[in-house]
Design goal:
This protein has 295 residues and is α/β, with parallel strands linked by helices. The chain has helices at residues 36-46, 61-66, 71-78, 84-93, 110-115, 118-121, 142-153, 216-225, 235-244, 263-275, 281-293; strands at 5-9, 30-31, 34-35, 51-56, 98-103, 126-129, 133-136, 156-162, 172-178, 185-193, 204-212, 248-252, 256-259. The protein is 35% helix and 24% strand. Bound molecules: uridine 5'-triphosphate (UTP). Residues 9-16, 55, 104, 107-110, 113, 130-132, 261 line the site of uridine 5'-triphosphate.
Length: 295
């Protein structure tokens, strides 16, 4: 079954990038000339996704404006032949996918945010792209790699990449076993959130891309019901339960991943994308070369 739906949770508070994210959602912070969330929508569209639900909250209306036509701006650019390419780039943003929005009315974590999308998902598998994780792979979109694995095996797939041993304690560690004939798809039987050094099973961590089967929503619902008021239900706990039952895959996806939820991630994304940007790449490289001489 071809996966055509995606969810982008973008209702977090973005506290690690305050004050930038106070009135501009972190998902709208730019990488050179596009907001982070546009990279996600382009990735999903390139993987054949046609319908996207963005989970937002108060103050994120600017995301809706970005993916809409801007009549005044388009009219203005139309009147200037030298701005034809710019006009095209502005217009195509509104046509990338059918995008709808739902509000998470309380910031109760990622699992709760995804639960808000249950009616959108229905009984279909859905791709999930975490709103602050940008992955760039122009030839083979990361979420498309996971979708293929879901389409082949019919199991929920978490996207993983290797992180360094000194960083794994900040993420989660996955217990995985290889699948014969596969180089990137693995069975995942256990997940430990923020592992202590002696708990680390592998350096694979879940990094912002998932394909969820319809079995996930009842599990999230049950988890939310059993979570005491004021506590957060962690999505990794749900994945971990699925893994114990042999119903979870991990996919080591290819792509350059940038964490737009922290300051260093934002700077790395801007620096690397700027270096290969057709308009400013060469000038930026020359500037950087001069700059490093002063260190
Ligand atoms: P994060 O935990 O990285 O986002 O969630 P955050 O809560 O905004 O981060 P900090 O710690 O305050 O800086 C990953 C993704 O899930 C979304 C976020 O918008 C982000 O894209 N999210 C998180 C929600 O949609 N709702 C939530 O309640 C929490």
């Amino acid at each position: 079954m071809k996966i055509t739906k995606a969810i982008i949770p973008a209702a977090g508070l973005g506290t690690r990038v305050l004050p930038a994210s106070k009135s501009v959602p972190k998902e709208m912070l730019n990488i050179v000339d596009k907001p982070a969330i546009q990279y996600l929508v382009e990735e999903a569209a390139a993987a054949g996704i046609t319908d996207i639900l963005v989970i937002t909250n108060r103050g994120k209306g600017v995301i809706e404006d970005h993916f809409d036509h801007s009549f005044e701006l388009e009219k203005n650019l139309e009147g200037n032949p030298s701005k034809a390419a710019l006009l095209e780039s502005v217009k195509r943003v509104a046509d990338l996918a059918n995008i709808s929005y739902i509000r998470q009315k309380e910031t109760k974590g990622l699992a709760h945010a995804l639960y808000c999308a249950r009616a959108f998902a229905g009984n279909d598998p859905v791709a999930v792209l975490y709103g602050d994780d940008v992955v760039i792979n122009e030839k083979n979109p990361a979420i498309g790699q996971l979708c293929e694995a879901y389409e082949k095996y019919g199991k929920t797939v978490v996207g993983v990449q290797s992180v360094t041993a000194d960083k794994i304690g900040l993420y989660c560690s996955l217990g995985v076993t290889p699948i014969e004939g596969e180089s990137r798809v693995m069975n995942c039987h256990k997940i430990i959130e923020k592992p202590k050094p002696e708990e680390v099973m592998s350096l694979f961590a879940i990094l912002g891309r998932v394909v969820m089967g319809p079995e996930m929503f009842p599990l999230i619902e049950q988890g939310l019901e059993n979570t005491p008021e004021g506590k957060e239900l962690y999505l990794t706990d749900i994945f971990s339960d699925l893994g114990k039952e042999g119903r979870l895959l991990a996919y080591d996806f290819e792509g350059n991943r940038y964490d737009m939820g922290n300051k260093l991630g934002i700077m790395k994304a801007n620096c690397e994308v700027a270096l290969s940007h057709p308009e400013i790449g060469e000038d930026f490289k020359a500037y950087l070369k001069e700059l490093v001489k002063t260190f």
